[in-house]
Amino acid sequence: MAAKQITSAFPIVKKPNRGQKSMKDSDQLPSTSTHDQAAVDSIDDLQILKNFDLTLEFGPCTGITRLERWERAQKHGLNPPDEVKDILLKNKDEEYQMCLWKDYEI
Amino acid sequence: MFEKKGGNHPDDLLSKPSQTHKACERQSGNFSDCSDRFLLKDKTFSRQYAHLYAERLWEVRPKVEASARKKWVPYTVHTMRLTHTSVYIPLGKDIVIRKLHELKSDETCVVIGTLFKHMELKPSILQEISEEHNLMPQPVRTKYVDESDKLYLEDELQRIILMGDLDVQTSVTGVIIAVYGKEPEDDQGKFHVEKYCFQMLSDQVPRPVIQNDKYLVLISGLEIGSNEEQIFSLQLFVDMVTGMLGNSEEQSHCAEICRVIVAGNSLSSSTQDKDSLQKAKYLSKKTAAGSVDAVKTLDDVFTQLASSVDVDLMPGEYDPANYTLPQQPLHKCMFPEASRYPTFHTVTNPYDFKVEGVRFLGTSGQAVQDIVKYSTNEEPLDILEKTLEWGHLAPTAPDTLGCYPFYKEDPFIINDCPHVLFAGNMTKFDSKVFKGCGGQEVLLVSVPRFSQTSTAVMVNLRTQDCVPMQFAAPSTMEPNR
């Protein structure tokens, strides 16, 4: 089989935010560089939380908040990563607290 | 049984009323309630049951592992050349415990997981709505067992079918088990079991020595509101316990009863009138529910009882409480008169409590009846013994028995070994002392339905003996000629 790029079957779809973000930053004051950093951090944090959800060792993730799942994993000695708890305690946003499948009624 | 305790009390039943009338003091028992884990704090039903199974596995696994390490020591068999005898030589190392995804072919190891019994005849909602079956409803059976039932072992990630020495017919879904065996190279996908074990029963807190005889009465299945209700026998029971019957000797013996536990089904199934739900509202506007009169009768009965002795009322299958286990206490507004007494308590099902240091644990029988339906076990005492061995009060919950979707704990796991384990609403009275391998002694009691047998059970807290209290009444009136 010839080496096919996955992008030939699934082309990259550029998110609409990306272009706007760079445009916004360029004509604003340098103090917004922290704002930009925070945005990147939040994407990283969400990625870490998403990986926490998808880790099967900590049990099922639907129907309970991430903090509850973390506490439960801690109780049973499964060593959940501490940074996940830090992120959860810092941000009380629903996006952070609820699991990946929060919009689905399961 | 009261007659045997000979006394020299003069027969004061037919004597003249006297000024100096001795009053009997009822024995009191030190009571403490341990059922806090059965009370539901928040009621969110939007969770899946996977959490309950995961929690059960995590909590019970370390105990099953300890039990397996203690029981199974790996060995090799060495046949002596001259005498041709076999010698078992311990290998000096621990058994290997593997998760299912780490299994290697032909390696003898131990796997710990949840048992799942695949049953062909188990009612399944998917089969019911399946178009292939032309929407024929599945018949309601008394037993759903079949020859072709199979056992699977499931851990967090995988499942494997079990072959070998495990008795499929007497096992049920939901038990945490450790199996010792191997997955053979030529039969992959199946685990051949040589030995198996469950959680070890924890050590019992020793019972304190009690000086006097004290009794606790267990009664269940009053089933008021049906055609078979035994109001006369029930009134006899109430009069007996409150000391209205017999001479002063009998009254003083009844004063040794310190508590009465009503283990479920105080209302009968006929009070759960399902027809009224189907009928149009305008037709059923003036009709009162069948349960209203029954509850009034019950309130009357409990008022009489509570005025004299501590009463704990557990909900049962036919009582107006929630369907899922653990059933929450009945609301006190149903018993306005009885609730005025501080001795009247409504409690959860299952119920866990301590009287005079004797630990009682019991249910209104739903768990036992469910195990009867989904396995070939018949005797309630056998099933109670098995639940102690398995370490779980209701292993079939939530599979076939309704259960609240817990996520943080599984309250049905038997962590502390009780002294008395009872199940209400059984077909007959029976009792047995179960001796555990750690020296524990548990009295297993099957409390019969009062509406069928007119029998209550008295448990002696001092000797851990158990006696039935049976009431007979003339069953039919002579027809008028």
From TrEMBL, chain A:
For this UniProt entry, the molecular function terms from Gene Ontology, in alphabetical order, are: DNA-directed DNA polymerase activity
The UniProt entry's GO biological process terms, in alphabetical order, are:
DNA synthesis involved in DNA repair; DNA-templated DNA replication
- GO terms for CC? delta DNA polymerase complex
Where is the segment annotated Disordered?
1-37
Q: Name the coiled-coil region(s).
A: none
Write down the PANTHER family for this protein, in alphabetical order.
DNA POLYMERASE DELTA SUBUNIT 4
What's the name of the protein? DNA polymerase delta subunit 4
TrEMBL record, chain B:
The record places domain DNA polymerase alpha/delta/epsilon subunit B at 217-430
The annotated regions of Basic and acidic residues compositional bias extend over 1-14
Q: Which Pfam families match?
A: DNA_pol_D_N, DNA_pol_E_B
**A GO biological process held by the record:** mitotic DNA replication
Supply the alphabetized keyword list: DNA replication, Nucleus
* DNA polymerase delta subunit OB-fold domain residues: 48-196
Hey, which family's this protein in?
Answer: Belongs to the DNA polymerase delta/II small subunit family.
In Swiss-Prot or TrEMBL terms, this protein is called DNA polymerase delta subunit 2
Q: What is the lineage of its organism?
A: Eukaryota, Metazoa, Spiralia, Lophotrochozoa, Mollusca
